[in-house]
Structures are given as structure tokens and as C-alpha cells.
Amino acid sequence: MKKLLKIFLSLLIIISPLTISRAEENQTLRVGMEVNYAPFNFSEVNDTNGGHPVANSPGEYANGYDVQFAKKIADGLGMDLEIYKIEWDGLIPALTSGKIDAIIAGMSPTEERLKQIDFSIPYYEAKVVVVTQKDSPYVGAKSIDDFEGAKITGQLGTFHVDVIDQMDGVAKQEAMDSFPTMIAATNAGTIDGYISEEAGAEAAIASNKNLTYIGFDEGKGFETSDSDTSVSVGLAKGSKLTEKINKILGQIDIETEQARIMGEMTALTTDDKEASGFMAEVKDIWQTYSGLFLRGLVNTLIIAIVATLLGFLIGLIVAIIRRSEVSKSNTPILYYLHKILKIILGAYVEIFRGTPMMVQAVIIFYGLKQYFDIDLSTMFAAILIVSINTGAYLSEVVRGGINSIDKGQFEATKAIGLSQFQAMVHVILPQTILTILPSLGNEFVINIKDTSVLNVISVTELFFMSKSVAGSTYQYFPTYLITAVIYFILTFSITRILLYLERKFSDKDFIMESSTGAKNV
After folding, report:
1. How far apart are CA 418 and CA 474, in angstroms?
2. What is the tens place of the pLDDT at every residue in 236-266?
3. Distance between CA 410 and CA 413 in Å, rounded?
């Protein structure tokens, strides 16, 4: 137990600097964007092309049309710019909870969004097109009504999904989470095309030579409102920044700057795309973005290791409390307190085992900030969420391990005068821990993979880094092949190490020897 306490204290020391995010500063403009939607916002490995550091992903730089306008706005406000990489679905919760000050991410001020947040005047006007394969039977379409039978989709949470209803006879598909996902589906032929705005379509086809996009003449395209096709800065309701940002944007020739900046950003995302063959593309992506993959890998390992150890300690404590008994006749107050505590711990186990970790992450990360003004850093929130989730599962594993110990040993400890605590520490737990060691190793491997769901709260683990690379290069399959290989090598290596440790600690003498050095009965 002393060793476990030392481990617990050491882990607290390690993660204590990560507990609370930086306090809000009046001179800093915190901007949220995906950093995976070229040419609006995409990831780079340095600032050579005018990129800006990503605050929550050290070593990563954001660039694109949105980034350049974010710089203009921050300069106009006389504020320092901080860019935060946040999933599309997490942008509005991040804004309303106060984790960021503005959304500059190619977002349109639709009616639904205006109910939640305010918007500035536009800084971009979009043209809506359909991306499809070059050899698609619909490639010669002149009107949106020429897609009868086509399987068409759009990005989840955008007006692109709604305008599909204007296309007569199409087979509208379920909305997808990102443009790289839709590009991959179009390349694979599982869908016939997707809705995009023209600049994004140009970047997509530059990186995917078998794709093209179809534009439409006036009167033959989509009927859209200005709020659909314009792109504005998202701001919290009643924000003091809205008027100031409108003034800054009002002084910019948007049409001229749109043509100039979008041309530059599109060129950046289409340069050096001459690699021939799939493996050449894989090699090119690894050579360019290996630093981002490795940083994501390190964060994944930190979260998995620390959270598994903390989760094990939580599970151990919960299992012991739920397994222990308190005499009502000797200490009635303690008896009832123990009963209440067991009910609370039982509810904790059921809730965290019965709900997805992704849902838990959103509630804890955004909910604590919005309703209790507790601003957790993403890394601390990740460790906290995975630890609590792991603790709920491992408490049942530990309970099962304790129950597997022969009842005669419990009776024997009473017979030789050991207290319930002494019996648990010196006799029961040493055997239990070794019995459940395979389950602990399995939970560790699961946590390595489950960290991927934390991208919903913008934790820069391996999967989230991979999404940035895929969204910046529009090379979906090569990027995720690299990611799959990294995950496989990692889990395979760790599994072999755990099997070795399991064999080492399965020595019969070690199992039977108590922490006092005496042989157990």
C-alpha cells in the first residue's frame, strides 16, 4: 500500500501543472478552428509559409484563409493571437463555455447557429459545388436536377446537408463528420459525391486526381441565402468584440483579399503533390508530418499510462470499500455512512460503465467550464476522464479478483487475529493483483486506442493529429495507414511486454509470499 501511495503522489506531481488552463487574458484573442479543412485552415510543421502556432498542440502550426484573417483581426484589436485546434462539433460549445473568444473556421451564420451565438459581418463569400469522380456518370451535369439516383452527402452540422433536398431524385446519404471522410467515400465509390464550397473542392481535387467538381450557372444551381454562403466570425452572445471586429472587417476590401489570400492558400495545399503511387504518397506524408504523428503518439502514451495507473488505484479503492463490512452494533454512525458511500460508489460504477467515454468527455470538459467556471486544460481533462472511466471498469475487475480468493483464507486471517484491513493488504490484495494482471494489461491496451475519442474535446493525441494531417493534405488513406501502423506497433509491443511481465510475476513463490515476507496460509 505504501508503494501504491507513492505512485499515486508521483502521478499527482506529474499532472499538477496540467490541471487548470491559462486564465483568460484581456490582451489575448483565443480563436478556435479545426486546423484540418484546407484551404480555410490546415496544419503545417513550421511557420515558413506564414503559419501560426497552435496553442493546444505544441510544435504544430495553423495556416489558411481563416488564419490570415484571424491575424488581421487580432492586429486590428491590438491583441495577441492564440489559435486552438478544436473539432467542428466542439467549436460552439467551446465558445459558449468561454474556452475561446471567437470561431474563425469557415462557419456560416445559419438560423440555427444564430440562436446560440452571434456573428460578425462576412469575411468570405462561398460558391456551392458538387465534388464527384472524374468518371462518374454525373460528371456532365449542368443542373442540380441532373443527379437522379446519385448518392450525395454533406458535412454534418452544415447547410450543405440541407441543400441536397433541392436536388430532384437524389439518394440523400447520412451526413459525414468531415471533408476527408467524404473524399475517402467518394474515392471508394460508396457515394457518388458530396457538397462543398469551391475553394475546398479545388484543394480536394488537387490532391485526388480522380476527383473533379461541378459548378452550375446562375438559375441552375442551389438556392441559398446570404447567411448560407457567407462566412463570418462566430462570437458569444452579447460579446463586446462583435462591434470591434465588424469595424475591422468593414475596413478590408473583402473581395480583393478573398481572391488574393484564397489563391495563395490553395497553392500551398496543392504544392509538392506529384508523388506517384500509393506508397510514394505514404512516404511523402511521413517525411513531412512525422513530427506531428510522434507528438500525438507521446500524448497518447502519457494519457494511457497515467490514466491506467490512476484508474487502477481508483478501482482498487472502490472495490475494497464496496467489499468491506462495518459492524452496526459497534459504530452505528460509521455503519450508515459506509452504506451511503457504497450506494454512491455503486452509482459511479454503473454510470461510467453505462455511458460512452465521448459523452463523459463533453459533459466534464465543457460542462464544468460553462456551469461551474472550472477551466480544465485538455491534457488534465483527458487524464481525468480516462482515469475515472477506467476506475469504474477496474473496480469490477478487482472485485472479481477478490471474490476468486478462497473463503478459507478470509477465515484464516480472522483466526490468527488480523484485522479486516490487515488481511486485505497483506493476504488478499497481493494475490488479487497478480490474478487480475492480464486484465490490467488489457485495459492499458484498450486505453491506448480509446484515447482517440478524446478528439471531441480537442486533445492532441495520435488520432486527432492524424485528422489534421488528413484534412490538410486530403490524402485520407495514406494518412490513416500510417496511423494504423503506429497503433499496431505500439499495442503489439506493449502486449509482448505485458506477457513477459505476467510470466515473470507468475512465479509461485512470489504469488504466495506476503508483503511481510512470511508465507501466506
Report:
1. 65
2. 999 999 999 999 999 999 999 999 999 899 8
3. 5
